[in-house]
Amino acid sequence: MADTRPGAMSRIIRWIDYRLPFVAALNHELNEYPTPRNLTYWWNFGSLSGIVLVVMIVTGIFLAMQYTPSSEAAFDSVERIMRDVNYGWLVRYAHSSGASMFFAIVYIHLFRGLYYGSYKEPRQFLWILGVIILILMIATAFMGYVLPWGQMSYWAATVITNLFSAIPLIGQSIVTFLWGGFTVGDPTLHRFYALHYLLPFIIVAVVGLHLIALHRFGSNNPLGIDAKGPQDTIPFHPYYTIKDLFGLAVFLLIYAFFVFYAPNTLLSPDNYIPANPMQTPNHIVPEWYLLPYYAILRAVPNKLLGVIMAFGSLFILFFVPWLDRSPVRSARFRPVYKWVFWLLVIDVVALGWVGANPPEGIVVTVGQIATFYYFLHMLILLPLVGKLERPRPLPSGIGAAMLGGGARLGAAGSPMAKP
Amino acid sequence: MLKRAFAAVALSAFVLAPPLVRAADETPPLPHQEWSFDGIFGTYDRASSQRGFQVYKEVCSVCHAVKHLYFRDLADLGYSEEEVKAIAAGYQVTDPQPNDQGQMYQRPGRPSDPIPPPFPNDQAARAANNGALPPDLSMIVKAREGGPNYVYAILTGYKDPPPGFNMLSGMNYNEYFPGHQIAMPPPLSENAVTFADGVPATVPQMAHDVVTFLAWASEPNLDDRHRTGLKVMLFLVVAAGVFYAAKRKIWAPIH
After folding, report:
1. Which among A137, B72, B158, B227 counts the fewest CB atoms within 10 Å?
2. CB A182 to CB B218 under 8 A?
């Protein structure tokens, strides 16, 4: 990082920096940037998701150099990458496993925010930008999944685009417009490819705004109280750069395990069969990171209502800062919300399980209960708990809590809290 | 019309799926074979995959293509350059370019040629196989739930149908095939091939060898992937250790 001691910065950099304060900005935002001193490893997932975004863009660009986006050639061009392009298998598996890693990290990041109330005043906009990123990611991942033009690619594209046909009156026209024809076909693949290349750069732009919003007030922290002065903060570098680096290495170990030893466990075998419009797979299942929405979609017997609720389960996140009116951010000091939070985690995992299984017998019942509970949590429990719960007393400051008796109190809340 | 298309999709996804899945549930669990390529140190057994190539060439290739494989790829199985040339020359292939007179012509294969398919197109394949399309085998191990164990189970899972089972004409009973009716007749029989290395050509032996070959065909870079992965993981373990030590040291005054 930039060194701001007058003698150390070369005259050229100073000349430039006077006119374009880029190095100074980097120094301010990445080096001296004051950060709460008590962030746990749960706070690693923000920078991790940024790094995975870069990995996805870089591997994606190299794949694009070899990929052919036509319904005739797409499947074979992916196989060519796997077999004949030097280290093509590595780039493709890094990209396909990377998508799963990206969602895993972002979901942890999101639930971290829910647990510690990171969406509350004054960080509502930070949260909203995060939800926008998630929606863009889902769109990007879906279109990327279509590109290899295997059986699941084709049928996922068919099922998902058909959701729009539920819109009254103009639904069918919208679907035809999305397809660029009367069925999923070559024009669909071409436009999905163009958009799959475009959207990640829009994500980068929104991530930029997310960071600006973050740095306006700084990170929230496990205690959920504001940093009140220098005794509560430490500079980002070297403390959090090294902590993030350690977290990155651990994450890369998990990522590398999937890339090198289990690259196909998260993919459907059906997607190694070329797309065949005449033959529907037995069991159309989306990727694991979309299963909860899929479960909500199927839980409602009415198609239009199912589509509204599946999209609604995502869009409702925009309103979380106003649904949860509790003045206390961190669940560590919210004895009731803490339980409600973990119930939501169990509920979402249950929805994922429901989405992965054929809708029969107990699966349908569980899906309907879990869908009901999801909306109950968001619309009823969040406001109600915020109103009725009696939060535990907050420590006077971060530094005081870490050094004094409050540290014990703070550490009790999370299994990953630092010793 | 589009509404009907959606209805068809929805129907097959939400309504037809359960009975099909239930039918699949009746199949016994797949027999689990020991594969040389299992686990993080796994590599393809070269002798086995060469025998497997022989089984493919002498048995499977009568009906099944391996369109993603080139003769040159066979060098991976441990064949020398000369052997690959000889294998390729044993096939007649149609040159992709016409000759000077504008005619397409046949010539002996070269290592740079794809392994030629048994049928010129899907229609010809169906016409020769009672309407059934023999799938391309170059991805078969990756393209089926259960992978190598599934393909092995299909090859060895032929039985007489249970009494009262309603067989369609021209179909064969296979324990592991979804719905149990498979168009492919039992492909392997005792001593269908003669292995040069003297290994007895029993049905389980041939099935095991040909699945090893087909697993390689599906994922030819597995050996390289496993080797590279080990180096990457070791590097990352060391890096994580160094970062952790540095983190402890840097944070020491904070705690």
Report:
1. B227
2. no
